[in-house]
C-alpha cells in the first residue's frame, strides 16, 4: 500500500510536471494526497466504463494519460459528460491523476514506448525543447567545496545526457561585512572579511529547483548563501516531443505499413502516396503530431508515424518521406503499460493494473 503522494512523487520524478506543454493540465485532478492506495488502474481516457472498472476492481486511483479536465470548467453540471465523470469520481472517492504531455516530453515516455514496440533500440528526441534546465552559480569557501558539490550531485545536479557530475570551478576571493544581528560562520561583526572561495557552476533540470536550493542551504556553511540562478535556452537530447531512430533492418514501405497494422491493431492507416522507398529511419510521435512533420523531414526520416493528420498535412512531405496516420488511440495505447511499468519498477508489490477498457471513441466501418 502506498500513499497517493508517494505514487505522485514517482510519476513526477519520471515525468516532471515542469515538462508539460503550456496548454496542458497534467497532475492530480482529484484526490487526497495523504490517502493510502491499495490498488490503481492505468488508462488512456476517463470514461464511464473505466470508472466502473475501478469500482469493480476496488481501485482507489485511476492514472490517465489524457486529463479529463482539459479546459477550465465553471460548474459541475449533470448535463455535461466531463462533469458527470468528475462528480462520480468524487462521490466514490476514486482519485484521478493525469500524466499527459509531461510523459510525451521525456525520451522514456509515450514515444519511447512506441519505439520499443517497433524494435527501435537507439533513439533520441525528435524536437528537443528548451527551458528545461537552469544553471546554479554559487560561491563556497574552498574547504567546503567538496561537501557542497557532492550534496548537489547526489540529488541530480550536474547531469548532462550520459554524463553525470558535470561542474565547473574557478578560485577567487569573496568579501563580506557582517552587520549587527548577523551570525557569521567566519569573520567579525563590523569588519570586512575576505575569504578564499570557489565559484561553483552546475546545471540542473528545473523541476529540481527547490530541492537544489534546500540542499545548497543545508550543505553551505554561510548564514546567507550567495548564488545566481540562470535560465538556459539550451536543449537536451532527452527532453522534447517525438523520437527518431533506426529500425533493426530496412523494410519496404508496404512492409512497414503491415508492421504498423499488426503492432498497433489499427482499423486503417492513412498515408501519403508510396514511392517505393526503403525505410530505416523512423520518426514518430504518439497522438496529434502534425506539428513535427517538418522536424522529421529536416532529420531526414524515411517515415514519420503519428495521428490526427488532416488532408493538407499529407501534401507536406512531397515524395521525401512516408507519412502515416495510425490513429490517436492506436498510437498511444501502450502508454498505460508504460505507466504500470513506472510504478512496478519503484513499488514491485503495489497493485497497479492496465485497464481492460478500450476507450477509443473512433470506430471504423470497413
Ligand atoms: Zn493523446
Give a written overview of the molecule:
This protein has helices at residues 4-14, 48-57, 81-91, 101-104, 110-117, 145-154, 209-219, 253-264, 293-298, 328-332, 335-346, and strands at 2-3, 27-30, 36-37, 39-43, 61-64, 95-98, 123-130, 133-141, 168-176, 193-205, 227-231, 235-252, 270-271, 278-288, 303-307, 322-325, 351-354. Helices cover 27% and strands 30% of the residues. Helix 1 (4-14) packs across helix 11 (335-346). With 366 residues, it is α/β, with parallel strands linked by helices. It folds into three domains: 2-104 and 334-354, NIF3 (NGG1p interacting factor 3)-like (Udp-n-acetylmuramoylalanyl-d-glutamate--2,6- Diaminopimelate Ligase, Chain: A, domain 1), CATH 3.40.1390; 110-128 and 240-326, NIF3 (NGG1p interacting factor 3)-like (Udp-n-acetylmuramoylalanyl-d-glutamate--2,6- Diaminopimelate Ligase, Chain: A, domain 1, 3-Layer(aba) Sandwich); 132-232, Alpha-Beta Plaits (2-Layer Sandwich), CATH 3.30.70.120. The model has no long low-confidence stretch (mean pLDDT 96). Strands 7-12-14-15-16-13 form a six-stranded mixed β-sheet. A five-stranded mixed β-sheet has the order 2-6-5-4-17, with helices on both faces. It has a four-stranded antiparallel β-sheet with strand order 9-10-8-11. It starts with a strand and ends in a 12-residue tail after the last strand. The structure holds zinc ion (ZN). The site of zinc ion (ZN) has 4 residues, from helix 10.
Amino acid at each position: 500500500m502506498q500513499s497517493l503522494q508517494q505514487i505522485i512523487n514517482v510519476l513526477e520524478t519520471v515525468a516532471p510536471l515542469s515538462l508539460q506543454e503550456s496548454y496542458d493540465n497534467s497532475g492530480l485532478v482529484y484526490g487526497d494526497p495523504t490517502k493510502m492506495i491499495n490498488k490503481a488502474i492505468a488508462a488512456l481516457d476517463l470514461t464511464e466504463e473505466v470508472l466502473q472498472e475501478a469500482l469493480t476492481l476496488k481501485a482507489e486511483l485511476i492514472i490517465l494519460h489524457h486529463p479529463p479536465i482539459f479546459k477550465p470548467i465553471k460548474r459541475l453540471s449533470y448535463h455535461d459528460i466531463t462533469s458527470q465523470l468528475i462528480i462520480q469520481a468524487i462521490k466514490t472517492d476514486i482519485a484521478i491523476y493525469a500524466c499527459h504531455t509531461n510523459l510525451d516530453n521525456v525520451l522514456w515516455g509515450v514515444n519511447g514506448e512506441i519505439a520499443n514496440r517497433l524494435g527501435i533500440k537507439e533513439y533520441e528526441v525528435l524536437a528537443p525543447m528548451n527551458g528545461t534546465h537552469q544553471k546554479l552559480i554559487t560561491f563556497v569557501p574552498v574547504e567546503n567545496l567538496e561537501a557542497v558539490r557532492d550534496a548537489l550531485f547526489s540529488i541530480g545536479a550536474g547531469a548532462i545526457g550520459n554524463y553525470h557530475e558535470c561542474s565547473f570551478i574557478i578560485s577567487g576571493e569573496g568579501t563580506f561585512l557582517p552587520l549587527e544581528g548577523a551570525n557569521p560562520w567566519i569573520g567579525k561583526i563590523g569588519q570586512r572579511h575576505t575569504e578564499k572561495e570557489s565559484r561553483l557552476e552546475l546545471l540542473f533540470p528545473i523541476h529540481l529547483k527547490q530541492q537544489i536550493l534546500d540542499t545548497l542551504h543545508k550543505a553551505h556553511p554561510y548564514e546567507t548563501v550567495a548564488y545566481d540562478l540562470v535560465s538556459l535556452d539550451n536543449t537536451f537530447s532527452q527532453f522534447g516531443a517525438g523520437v527518431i531512430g533506426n529500425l533493426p533492418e530496412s523494410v519496404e514501405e508496404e512492409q512497414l505499413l503491415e508492421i504498423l497494422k499488426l503492432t498497433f491493431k489499427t482499423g486503417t492507416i492513412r498515408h501519403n502516396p508510396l514511392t517505393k522507398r526503403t525505410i530505416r529511419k523512423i520518426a514518430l510521435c504518439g497522438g496529434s503530431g502534425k506539428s513535427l512533420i517538418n522536424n522529421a523531414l529536416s532529420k531526414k526520416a524515411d517515415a514519420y508515424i503519428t495521428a490526427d493528420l488532416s488532408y493538407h498535412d499529407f501534401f507536406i512531405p512531397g515524395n521525401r518521406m512516408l507519412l502515416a496516420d495510425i490513429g490517436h488511440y492506436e498510437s498511444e495505447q501502450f502508454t498505460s503499460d508504460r505507466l504500470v511499468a513506472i510504478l512496478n519498477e519503484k513499488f514491485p508489490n503495489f497493485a497497479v493494473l492496465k485497464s481492460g477498457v478500450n476507450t477509443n471513441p473512433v470506430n471504423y466501418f470497413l
